Amino acid sequence: MAGSGSGPALETIQADGTDGNCVTFVLHDEDHTLGNSLRYMVMKNPDVEFCGYCITHPSESKINFRIQTRGALPAVEPFRKGLNDLMGVCQHVLNTFERSMKEFRAQKEEEMQ
């Protein structure tokens, strides 16, 4: 879904009086598909105290994704790590699927001969 808008794909919002360990990331042109899977990946980090997201309104295609960390760890670090880990999982699923499809097609060709 990303890339259909003309504005930035990502914004950060930090409440006044807080340091970088509590940040809301606004992801434009995204929905539950990214929100829930990214939340799962970020929550695997033991330094994350809170992670959640919400869809602002059904007619808007953006999510507010909030991360709060323990100690001095900036919230952007587990956000970045979560995105990278999620990309790794997606790549593994894609590779496994493509390998299985190749094996299936080879098996079907063998049966046809």
Oligomeric description of these chains = single chain
Cα-to-Cα separation, first versus last residue: 43 Å
Strand content: 15-25%
Mean pLDDT: 91
> Looking across the biggest beta sheet, what order are the strands in?
1-2-4-3
**What ranges have pLDDT less than 50 throughout 5 or more consecutive residues?**
none
Largest beta sheet, briefly?
4 strands, antiparallel
General form: elongated
DSSP summary: helix tally: 2
The secondary-structure class comes to alpha+beta
Q: Strand-and-helix sequence, N→C? A: EEHEEH
Estimated radius of gyration: 19 Å
Count of DSSP strands: 4
> Helix share of residues?
40-55%
Family: Belongs to the archaeal Rpo11/eukaryotic RPB11/RPC19 RNA polymerase subunit family.
Protein name: DNA-directed RNA polymerases I and III subunit RPAC2
Subcellular location: Nucleus
Pfam families: RNA_pol_L_2
Summarize the structure in short.
By secondary structure, the chain is an alpha+beta fold.
Question: What does this entry look like structurally?
Answer:
This protein is an alpha+beta fold. Helices cover 43% and strands 24% of the residues. A 4-stranded antiparallel sheet has the order 1-2-4-3, with helices on one face. Helix 1 packs across helix 2. It is elongated and about 70 Å long. The model has no long low-confidence stretch (mean pLDDT 91). InterPro entries: RBP11-like, RBP11-like_dimer, RNA_pol_Rpb11_13-16kDa_CS, RNAP_AC19, Rpo11-like. It is found in: Nucleus. Belongs to the archaeal Rpo11/eukaryotic RPB11/RPC19 RNA polymerase subunit family. This is DNA-directed RNA polymerases I and III subunit RPAC2.
